[in-house]
Amino acid sequence: MSPSKQAILVTGGCGYIGSHTVLRLLESGYKVIVVDNLSNSSYESLRRVHKLYAITAAASPSTQFEDAALPVETLIPFYQVDILDRHGLVKVFENHPEISSVIHFAGRKAVGESGRIPLDYYNVNISGTVNLLQVMEDFHVRKIVFSSSATVYGNPPSIPIPETSPIITVMSPYGRTKVFLEHILQDLCVASVIKQQQYLQDRTNNTDGANGAEVERNYEWSVMLLRYFNPAGAHPSGIMGEDCKGTPNNLMPFLSQVAVGKLERLAVFGNDYPTEDGTCIRDYLHVVDLAQGHVAALEKLDQEQAAGNYGCKAYNLGTGTGYSVFDMVKAFSKAVGTDLPYKVTDRRPGDVPNLTSDPRLANKELNWRAEKTLDEMCADLWRWQRNNPDGYAVSPSIPHPI
What we know:
- Its cofactor is NAD(+).
- It comes from Mortierella hygrophila.
- The protein has helices spanning 16-27, 44-58, 72-75, 86-95, 111-116, 118-138, 173-205, 251-259, 287-306, 325-336, 360-365, 374-387; strands spanning 7-11, 31-35, 78-79, 99-104, 143-149, 222-228, 230-232, 266-269, 281-282, 284-286, 311-317, 323-324, 342-345, 354-355.
- It is an alpha/beta fold.
- Helix 1 packs across helix 9 (287-306), helix 8 (251-259) packs parallel to helix 10 (325-336) and helix 8 packs across helix 12.
- The radius of gyration is 21 Å and the shape is globular.
- The two termini are 31 Å apart.
C-alpha cells in the first residue's frame, strides 16, 4: 500500500518524538491522525508541524504537498484523549475508519520518576496500551509500531548491545513497563496466528458460520518494536523541539535550560562508574533521524505483509557510538559558545554505566541509518532553545474535544 493511501494514528503525537514523526509522516505522503492527552505536551507542536510542512510544500514542485494549504485542524485531525479512555479511543476509530496502522508513543517516560510513582507508570503505560490494543482489535487494525526503549536491556553484559541481548536485569519501573509491553505484543502476535489458523480451518470446513463466499479475513498482527536509545536535538529550523514541562528529566534538555539561564547548573549523577571519565555513557540519536526510523518501520511492515509475513520483531535505533555525560557537556558548551556549569552529585537510582546500540540490524533490514552528527545535534538543540527559551509557551485553542 502506498503512503498516500494510508492513514496513521499517532498516539502521543504532540510530544517531542511524536511531533517530529508526524511531520516526517506528512512529508512522506501519509495522512496522520493524532491522539494526545496533553499532560506533558502542547497542541502548539502540531501548529509548528503545520508551519514546517507548508515550508516543505513551498520548496517542492510536487503535487504531493497540495494539502499543505489546509488548516491545521483539517490536515492533522486531533483528539485530546487519554489512552486509558476506551470510549474516547473508540470515537477516534469510528470517526476515522481509514486508519490502517498505529504508531504508539503515548505514555510516561522518565526513569527516575518511575521509581517514585511506579503505579502510575504501570497504569498508564501498561493498562493504557492494552486498552489501545483492544480497541485496535475491535476495529480490525492490527499493525503497530511501538515506542520501546534501550532501557529494556537493563545493565547489558556487553557493548554494543544487539537485539539478542537478554532483557532480565531491567533497572527501573519505566524500563519494566517497556519489557512487559514487548511481551504482551509478542503474545498477541502468537495468539493471532492461532486465531488465523482456526479461522482458515473453519472456513475450509464451512463450520462455525464461516462462509466460503465471504472475503477472506486476516486476524494476524504485525508489530515493530523500536528500541531507541537517547533522542536529542531538535528540528534544524529551530521552530520545533522538546517542550519540557517543569524540570527536565534528561541530560540534553536540562543542559539547554542551563544555557538559557532557566536552571543554575547541571547535576551530574555520579562520576564513579566504570567508564573512562566515570560518568554514564549513552548513545545519543538525533530526533529527526529517529522520526525517519518510524517511517522506515512502517514501510518494512508493509513490505512484510505484502509478502505474507506477520509477527513481531525488534530493532535498535541508535548511532552505535556512545558519549559520556562530560562528553555531552563539552559538545553542547561548544555549540553555545561558553562553558556550562555542572556539579557532580550522587548516583541516580536506575542508571546503568553504558547503553550503546548495535544498530546494524536496522541498517540492513529497515534500510535506515542515523545520519546526523553530534555537532549537528547540539547546534540544532541550541537553535531551538535559544529561539524558544520558554518552549512553546502558548495555550492554543484545541479542536475536536471528546
